[in-house]
TrEMBL record:
One of its GO terms (cellular component) is phosphopantothenoylcysteine decarboxylase complex. Its cofactor is FMN; Mg(2+). The gene is coaBC. Binds 1 FMN per subunit. Residues 11-221 are annotated as: Phosphopantothenate--cysteine ligase. Catalyzes two sequential steps in the biosynthesis of coenzyme A. In the first step cysteine is conjugated to 4'-phosphopantothenate to form 4-phosphopantothenoylcysteine. In the second step the latter compound is decarboxylated to form 4'-phosphopantotheine. Catalyzes two steps in the biosynthesis of coenzyme A. In the first step cysteine is conjugated to 4'-phosphopantothenate to form 4-phosphopantothenoylcysteine, in the latter compound is decarboxylated to form 4'-phosphopantotheine. Its EC number is 4.1.1.36, 6.3.2.5. This is Coenzyme A biosynthesis bifunctional protein CoaBC. The lineage of its organism: Bacteria, Pseudomonadati, Pseudomonadota, Gammaproteobacteria, Alteromonadales. It comes from Idiomarina aquatica.
Length: 221
């Protein structure tokens, strides 16, 4: 097991959910715990990388030696990502695809709304796609959280977001994925794939970092 595979490499990782405010006390979010992204950050740091972790709201301690930036919304996560200088970008965050079109400055009262309330949503920026399609993009690794046709959807995201690698997990399985301590994934690239059986997110993070580094250094100009 090599300890310095990432030596001299600057890696930015996003983790956790984003929170999209509805009013001062309510928000839209999802079940991401941050465990997968935090494990990837800890492993990358131990493998010699300079790691920045951009984290949505989670309850995990900061991994030692990792520069952690805390954000809430997708827009804040994008701004934090765009402010980084990085060689590798790993997008593990479960970014909310939509946010409320308007954020009420005051708590919304049910007396104003009656029995049926509507929320108008607008699309959030795609953080990964924005970073991957900038003029001199870093080496970009995405995740794909799918509940069906995992391979097809993951390959579609690999193409559409212009990624080097995509890590697909089946989030319909409660034993893995969101909030679980374990995960099982298949990593896809242009002309290959590799599967990793269910294991702790810590172990998986080490194995994934080894694979990411192999591909990064193979493709590096
Ligand atoms: O946090 P845990 O509880 O440990 O769970 C881990 C996980 C299931 C959240 C993780 O393994 C995972 O799958 N993360 C990606 C979740 C996701 O939002 O996937 P997606 O298929 O919707 O998005 C595809 C890719 O685009 C992802 O890399 C995502 O970070 C990125 N994206 C999506 C939307 C958006 N607006 N901006 C993005 O950058």
């Amino acid at each position: 097991h090599r300890t310095n595979v990432w030596q001299g490499t600057r890696i930015t990782i996003t983790a956790g959910p984003t929170r999209e405010a509805i009013d001062p006390v309510r928000y839209i979010s999802n079940h991401s715990s941050g465990k997968m992204g935090y494990a990837l950050a800890a492993a990358a740091q131990q493998l010699g990388a300079e790691v920045t972790l951009i984290s949505g709201p989670v309850t995990l301690p900061s991994p030692p030696g990792v520069n952690v930036i805390h954000v809430e919304s997708a827009e804040q996560m994008l701004a934090a990502a765009q402010a980084q200088t990085m060689d590798v970008f790993v997008s593990c965050a479960a970014v909310a695809d939509y946010r409320p079109a308007e954020v009420s400055q005051q708590k919304i009262k049910k007396e104003q709304k009656g029995d049926d309330a509507q929320l108008t949503l607008v699309k959030n920026p795609d953080i990964l796609k924005t970073i991957a399609t900038q003029p001199q993009p870093p080496f970009c690794i995405g995740f794909a959280a799918e509940t069906e046709k995992v391979r097809q959807h993951a390959l579609d995201k690999l193409q559409r977001k212009q990624l080097q690698l995509i890590v697909a997990n089946d989030v319909s399985d409660k034993q893995i994925g969101f909030n679980s301590d374990n995960n099982a994934v298949t990593v896809y690239w242009q002309d290959g794939e590799q599967s990793f059986a269910a294991q702790s997110k810590q172990n998986l993070a080490n194995a994934l970092n080894e694979l990411f580094a192999q591909h990064y250094f193979k493709n590096k100009p």
